[in-house]
Write a structure and sequence with these properties.
- By secondary structure, the chain is of the alpha/beta class.
- It has 14 helices and 16 strands.
- It folds into two domains: 227 residues, Aspartate Aminotransferase, domain 2, CATH 3.40.640.10; 99 residues, Aspartate Aminotransferase, domain 1 (Alpha-Beta Complex).
- It is 36% helix and 15% strand.
- The chain has a seven-stranded mixed sheet with strand order 2-10-9-6-5-3-4, with helices on both faces. Strands 13-14-16 form a three-stranded antiparallel sheet. It has a two-stranded parallel sheet with strand order 1-15.
- α1 runs antiparallel to α8, α2 packs across α8 and α3 packs across α4.
- The longest helix is centred in the middle third of the chain and has 18 residues.
- It is globular.
- It starts with 18 loop residues before the first strand and ends in a 20-residue tail after the last helix.
Length: 413
């Protein structure tokens, strides 16, 4: 798109450097260096070393669960959990999720069956889940999108009624609770992500948590080649182990978890305040009676009330170096191979289709200051004032992939 406007005449973008969604929280670099020195002195770099064992204990204690099995990343964690649960045939999942949720199934020859979501929670709609069950269904994977919990009790009831395994993709939900119970304690097992973009991270990593002794034993064996002891392979497995270095980063990150959450909560409240008067733009709310990590600031744009479409807001923000994201547009069901497998799926997911066209995720975390949020609020205010000209200049929708825009050069107002 040709740059034809700028919200501040004669000036560069509002932010000199790009403001990203998911900029890593680092914690204490000195503590990371100290732990890495310890690892090098021990010369034990992998295979359930001291750091990994400590990381597992701390996650288990935080969640209040009996078993935590650290893995190299959450996608492998989902694959191992699915295999440990002996899933096959069809498994019900949302399409409003990162593609890894479905890929973990498809990679193993299991068919993901995409189910519609609740318009308020953005999570699986239990009524729709029941309608998706067929004789080939063996399980359900709920996703706690944005760290806001699934309707766990309803899903557990459905799973028990139909003799299905219930797992949860809890990639967003470390440190969150539901009905006073920590996420990680629902279903047969839940899988956390410690990717670099998560508020507590290992650089790359994940963990499977469960209260089931037998399930934990199967996972432990599967993540290490199916070994039942030294040189004794007893089943098919893979290499899903977390390294000592990743655990060192994760332990350091965990030491700052309260600080990270406080920063996220501060940013969330600041965004709620500065965007309160923007018509048709709603900040998705967290239930503050529960524990939350506040790691996502999610906007939902009502295009009947907003002066700009969701994609026009995206273009305005990108032009000012605020690299907001359209998670999880266009939906896993519209990506390959799933789009080709069944092109009729979108017609069965009306709520998912609507939500995916409304969501915009803003930068937060320790890389974002209160002054940054004030400035972002100013961008929204100025764009509202210039909405008529902006609508004439900016396409209402953008194709995929989106290329970040350069500065808009002329004033719209």
């Amino acid at each position: 798109m040709t740059s034809k406007l700028h919200l501040w005449p004669g000036r560069s973008p509002a932010f000199a450097q790009p403001l990203h969604v998911g900029r890593p929280n680092i914690g204490s670099a000195a503590a990371i260096h100290r732990r890495i020195d310890e690892i090098l002195q021990r010369k034990w770099l992998s295979n359930d070393g001291v750091m990994v064992q400590e990381f597992e204990r701390r996650i288990a204690a935080l969640v209040g669960v009996k078993h935590c099995l650290a893995v190299c990343n959450a996608t492998v964690g989902l694959e191992i959990a699915c295999r440990a649960a002996a899933l096959s045939g069809e498994v019900i999942v949302p399409a409003n999720t990162f593609v890894a949720t479905a890929h973990a199934l498809q990679w193993q020859g299991i068919t993901p069956v995409f189910c519609d979501i609740d318009p308020e929670t953005h999570n699986l709609d239990p009524h729709c889940v029941e309608a998706c069950i067929t004789p080939r269904t063996t399980g359900i994977i709920g996703v706690h999108v944005w760290g806001r919990p699934c309707a766990a009790a309803a899903l557990e009831h459905i799973a028990k009624k139909h003799d299905l395994t219930l797992l949860f993709d809890a990639a967003h939900a470390l440190g969150c609770s539901h009905t006073g119970k920590m996420i990680g304690r629902f279903g047969t097992a839940e899988v956390f992500s410690f990717h670099a973009t998560k508020f507590v991270n290992c650089g790359e990593g994940g963990a499977i948590v469960t209260g089931d002794d037998g399930f934990a034993a199967r996972v432990r064996q599967m993540r290490s080649f199916g070994l039942g002891g030294c040189d004794h392979v007893v089943s098919v497995g893979t290499n899903g182990k977390m390294s000592e270095f990743a655990a060192a980063v994760g332990l350091t990150s965990l030491e700052s978890i309260d600080e990270f959450i406080q920063t996220n909560q501060r940013n969330y409240h600041a965004y709620c305040r500065v965007l309160a008067e923007v018509p048709g733009v709603k900040v998705l709310r967290y239930d503050e009676a529960e524990r939350n990590n506040f790691q996502y600031v999610v906007l939902q744009v009502d295009e009947h009330e907003s002066p700009l479409t969701r994609d026009q807001w995206l273009q305005v923000l990108h032009a000012e170096n605020v690299l907001a994201r359209r998670y999880f547009y266009p939906g896993v069901h519209r990506m390959e191979p799933y789009r080709s497998h069944d092109p009729t799926v979108p017609s069965r997911l009306p709520v998912t289709e609507a939500i995916l066209k409304q969501v915009l995720v803003l930068p937060t975390g320790t890389a974002v200051e209160s002054a940054d949020i004030e400035l972002i609020g100013g961008i929204f205010s100025r764009a509202c004032a210039a909405a008529t000209k902006l609508r004439a200049l900016l396409p209402a929708t953008l194709p995929l992939p989106t290329v970040p825009l350069g500065p808009l050069e002329q004033e719209a107002a």
